[in-house]
Amino acid sequence: MTAYVPTAAGWSEGGPEEVADGIFRIPLPLPNDSLKAVNAYLWRGDEGDLLIDCGWVDPRSWEVLTSSLDRLGSGLKSIRHLFATHFHGDHLGAAGQIREAGGAFVTLGMGDRETARILATDPELARSRTRELLLRHGAGSVAEALEREAAANPRPPWLSPLPDLFIDGGELPFQGHELEVLPTPGHTRGHLCLWDGSAGILFAGDHVLPHITPSIGVEVPVGGLPLLHFLRSLEKVRDLPAQLVLPAHGPTFQDLAGRVDQLLHHHEQRLRLCLEAVAAGARTAMAVAQAVPWTRRERRFDELDTFNQMLAVNETVAHLDLLAERGELSLGRSELGVEFTTASGGS
Ligand SMILES: [Zn+2]
Question: Which residues have CB atoms below 5 A from the ion given as ligand 1?
Fold first, then answer.
């Protein structure tokens, strides 16, 4: 199989692009999202097509998806299998519509089962868990702002459907290729990549992105060590002999190991910054989040919008929990919630 030249600027616009023989990248617009677009990948097959991720439930995204399928000589009825890399709405959102319109079989990672079930059946529980996490980590002001904004501008309910099957690894034969399903927990517990060893192509979902670091720690059943899992999952894919990486956001790229090393380095740096913030007196995840810079532009916490403040607190919790797991911080509880101190006992 030929791996084509990676895409460059302007990845989020334009029609379907053939990125390897029979594999097309379809950028789908994301409403009100700084990520701009999510890449769905369509692999044409003799006995039906494979679609990897599918965009939000959104009329504009739907229009781009269906018109792109038309242009490729495919269609909703041609999609045999919809493989969602994880439960987030930009990856699984439109699955129900696609399944209804054409009968596609929808799969999702086993590790996302509990979160997907809660989001599909009890969105109120998902909201209250987020609120509890923020309160526990000193971020009551963020929780209040989220609620105020939700009341003023109610979002549509989570429409992602439950999949037909949860999978946890194994082989997926397609068009004479033995695709390997790679559990890569971190960005979500059930995140999956798809690896085509014969062609050296990695469908990377949100696990390895070329320009941004995937958010870590946003999960409904809170707890666990998402950053530890993410770092291990990065090591797991680092040395795959990839010729081409197909990410869910951003252009396709080739240097998998180089990008993985950048992400590993980024998180080690963030861990060090968090440790320094605690040593300087920040005790809660909220206080640490306020002390460290955010995004590639190094913005202050209070410059972020409320949703991104929530993500930032979550991400900080993930880093502090890993530092505690490594024995570099101690974790205690007070009436204020969870507090971190340097392991030596200083503030
Ligand atoms: Zn995601």
Answer: 88, 206
Q: Ligand 1 centre and the CA of 335: distance in Å?
A: 34
Q: How many Å lie between the centroid of ligand 1 and the Cα of residue 305?
A: 18
CA angle 183, 188, 192 (to 5 degrees): 25
pTM for the full predicted model? 0.92
- What phi, psi does 289 have (nearest 5°)? -60, -35
The CA distances from residue 65 to 7, 54, 78, 108, in Å, are 19, 8, 13, 20
Q: Provide the pairing of β-strand 23-29 with 17-20.
A: antiparallel
Domains along the chain? 17-117+156-255 (3.60.15.10), 263-342 (1.10.10)
Measuring CA to CA, which residue among 150, 92, 94 is closest to residue 126?
150
Model pLDDT for residues 84-108, shown as the tens digit of each residue: 999 998 999 999 999 999 999 999 9
